[in-house]
Amino acid sequence: MKIGIPRALLYYYYYPFFETFFKELGCEVVLSEETNAKIISDGCKVTVSELCVPIKIFNGHVVSLMNKNVDYIFVPRFISIGKEWYCPKFIGLGEIVKYSIDSMKDKMLIVELKNKTDIPDRIEDYMPLAEKLNVTKAQLKNALKKAKISFLKCRKLSLQGYTIPEAYSILKGKEVPPPMQKADLTIGLMGYVNNVYDDFVSMSAVKKLREMGVKVITFDMLDENIIKLDKSKGKQPFWTFARKVYNAANYLINNVEIDGIIHLTAFACGPDSVIGKMMELECGEKDIPFMTIRIDEHTGESHVQTRFEAFTDMLKMRKGAK
Amino acid sequence: MKVSFPYMGCVTGFKKLFELLGHEVIMPEKPTQRTIDLGVLNSPEFICYPFKIMMGTYIEACEKGAELIVSSGGSGPCRAGIYGDVHKKILHELGYDVEIVIFDSLFENFGAFMNQVFKIKNKTPTLKVMKYAYLVFKMINQMDGIEKELKHLRAYEVNKGDFDKCFDKIKELYDKTYTLKQMKKTYAKALEMLHAVPVNIPPENKRVRIGIVGEIYVIMESSTNMDIEKRLNALGVEVENIQYISDWVKHHIIPRRFSKEESWKMFDKGYQYKSCNCGGHDMENTGAIVHFSQKGYDGVVHLMPFGCLPELITRSIIPQITEDYGIPVLSMSMDEQQGEANIQTRLEAFIDLCKNRSNKQQISPAEAANSKELKKEFAGIM
After folding, report:
1. Which strand (E) or helix (H) includes residue B119?
2. Which domain-ending residue is among A159, A189, A219?
3. Which of A48, A84, A270 lies closest to B309 in CB terms?
4. What is the ipTM, given to two decimal places?
5. Is A300 a residue whose pLDDT tops 80?
6. Cβ B48–A277 below 8 Å, yes or no?
7. CB–CB of B44 and A276 under 8 A?
């Protein structure tokens, strides 16, 4: 059986998990191609215009998978982790996809994930798959166990300072240069994985910054214990990934020698509109330069390049003056 | 303490509650252009419109010397749950020394809820607080009931503006009411006043009814939706709004088992389209569109702030509902950039279509029964 996985949204966090999971169940995993102009324009055509770019891209990938002759397309509905929620658009992803794309109803393979921790391995959530994929509970359990191992392997690489696409390459057995240890500047690139690591929308932000001699730290390179939900700090954002990004920024501002923070966000992103302001206020208090880069379906590449250059130039001058 | 609160729904009721508790009330003003400008200036760019309006209202209240602002909170996933904390940060950043009390859900964290109650109850004996709360709740309930009726009758007023004048007078009456006994008289008088306004009600088959669904703040507060209800009434259309403060309170305080509220029924009707609530009122709204079409309404207007997270999910589902039930839905986003002419034109076009459609159905019932084509015609109006 062929399962299509869209290369969008939490592909950039959970792909090793779901790849291993489906392979263990004896399915063939088909990944959509990397985001390109056609995918984005296909996505924009079918999606409500006001939705954010990441969702449009997800729909674009689903459309591209429809043409790839797969049996099912995997659309995970991430609902909550413990008492935390995902962004409402993740919760309603099933509906968005189902009602935007024709003939999607029978092809959609949906699981509703209400995990306790970062690892989505609660067996109850996957039981609806048993019938569709013709597998037993024991097989599901076994596959989840293996999936967890792959996911943790990938997380370990991230903690060493590899970006997530680099970690995926290493897991595939490719050679990747080791992460930068020393650099002129250290910048926290704060943003969701689906924005930061999708090279088409972020215009290869990490690569561009590294070429300018910057060591980039993203939230996924920090240990979950550092950025975990901490009620003692007051009310925190109640969206999982927003909380991760916000706490990561907080940690970097207070505990790491950091030269600046760049917030990479998508046009009309709900959670970011809140945490962006909060991060800005906190950077202001600690006198750390802060820049917001907002991306959408038609960002020009030179605009991003110019702003990165100006920002790093300013940081270098500032460091020199100290 | 000088207390203020956001301007939303039946403000007379909130004012009464704080007055009875012995606070000095800084009455928030109905949002004006200045409120909106102040809010936009000091809010994050992409936050939803209600946040910006509330921000403006708070700043205006602070300028008048408010020391305590009372608002409602939540625990996600809708952004409204985090409003209070961001408001607080921004107000402190602006240099206003003001305390914000946020009421989260009663059942989620009872201790925290009671703490908040103690903060605002101002040493009033608990029994009295309960009595006041009951009084105010009843008052809001009555006023909302009057408003509901007004939105139906106003479509047929003979002299333009009669009903608005009448409702202003009713509000004044309630403003002067402090006990349950007085309230009974006020209610009778208010109803009498409402029914004394001359109206010209057409026969049943000529009446056009429109339901309003959407995000609670923009459908409830007329200044944020450019008085959409009045505009619809002026076009000769009866309006039914699904959100009122009293309904919201009942929905949140009375456990489902004992509740006779329509909101729960709407909730159930939403389940055929989605398996879980995505925050805010998206499940009710999905169900409400179905509910209106089953009740024989001629159309539904769906309002939301620009970029509203839960309502965007509803919006994705609307074409499917239109196809299944054949009810025309007009979906509009509200923000600080909206223009009057745009809204007026779209509403007029929409109402014309709704009227045409019901005429068509009356001419040939056979065509109406076989209305696949009609449904398609309206699936396009978004």
Report:
1. helix B110-121
2. A159
3. A270
4. 0.88
5. no
6. no
7. yes
